Amino acid sequence: MAVREIFTGMPWWVKWIAVPLIVLVLFGGMIATVVAFFIALLFKLLLLVVLVGGLIYVVRKFTSSSSSRRDW
Fold first, then answer.
1. Structural domains in the chain (count)
2. Which residue range is the domain that position 49 belongs to?
3. How confident is the chain (72 residues) per 10-residue block, as mean pLDDT?
4. Helix (H) or strand (E) holding 66
5. Quick one: pLDDT at residue 66?
6. 22, 29, 41, 63 from 50: Cα distances, Å
7. Alpha-carbon distances of 62 from 49, 53, 58, 59, rounded to whole Å
């Protein structure tokens, strides 16, 4: 028996309100944990990109200024 056959005789509010509400109540904590994990992962990746980019910028700035001092 397919899911479509089960929901065929049901009213619209069962399909679009009651079932999603039950899913959120039962699995809401797990869904929130997964979403929080991915948000934290994206934040850490963004922080990594910013820190590595800043490090590369600082190193290039100091190496270019020290090489220009030697040219004098």
1. 1
2. 3-71
3. 85 94 96 97 98 96 72 50
4. helix 19-71
5. 63
6. 41, 31, 14, 20
7. 20, 14, 6, 5
Give, as one character, the DSSP assignment of residue 2.
-
Specify the amino acid at residue 23: V
pLDDT computed for residue 70 by the predictor: 56
- Identify the pLDDT of residue 19: 94
- What phi, psi does 53 have (nearest 5°)? -65, -40
pTM reported for the whole predicted model? 0.63
| DSSP secondary structure of 4-63 | HHHHTTS-HHIIIIIHHHHHHHHHHHHHHHHHHHHHHHHHHHHHHHHHHHHHHHHHHHHH
Q: For the chain, what is the largest distance between any 2 Cα atoms, rounded to a whole number of angstroms?
A: 86
Q: In sequence order, which residues have a C-beta less than 8 Å from that of residue 24 and are 6 or more positions away?
A: 31
